[in-house]
Amino acid sequence: MSDRELYCDGCEGVVLFEAPPCVDGHDADCPELVCTGCGAAVLIATVAFPAPRLRHRSRATRMPHRHAA
Ligand SMILES: [Zn+2]
Ligand SMILES: [Zn+2]
């Protein structure tokens, strides 16, 4: 899984994408691919990269009200 063919907006067609040298230590699991045609970088979603659930933080932390007598 070192290269893929994806649609590139810059190239307006399906071109070969390849994983760039990763600086984040993802190695082969790096979700970033770079277009070999124009050099545009894209992020791909893989099953190896489960997206963390976004939670609303409005009620995440409920501080108990203190009623001083
Ligand atoms: Zn990476
Ligand atoms: Zn391209």
Topology, please?
Layout: E1 3-8, E2 13-18, E3 32-35, E4 41-43
Antiparallel strand pairs: 1-2, 2-3, 3-4
The protein binds zinc ion (2 copies).
One zinc ion binds at residues 22, 24, 26, 30, 32.
Q: What can you tell me about this protein's structure?
A:
By secondary structure, this protein is mostly beta strands. The chain has strands spanning 3-8, 13-18, 32-35, 41-43. It has a four-stranded antiparallel beta sheet with strand order 1-2-3-4, with no helix packed on it. A hairpin with a 4-residue loop joins strand 1 and strand 2. The protein is elongated and about 70 Å long. The termini are far apart. The structure holds zinc ion (ZN) (2 copies). One zinc ion binds next to loops. One zinc ion (ZN) binds at residues 22, 24, 26, 30, 32.
- Residue share in β-strands: 25-35%
Structural category is mainly beta
Largest sheet: 4 strands, antiparallel
User: How many helices in DSSP terms?
Assistant: 0
Mean pLDDT: 77
Helical coverage, percent range = under 10%
Which strand order spans the largest sheet, edge to edge or round the barrel? 1-2-3-4
Low-confidence stretches: none
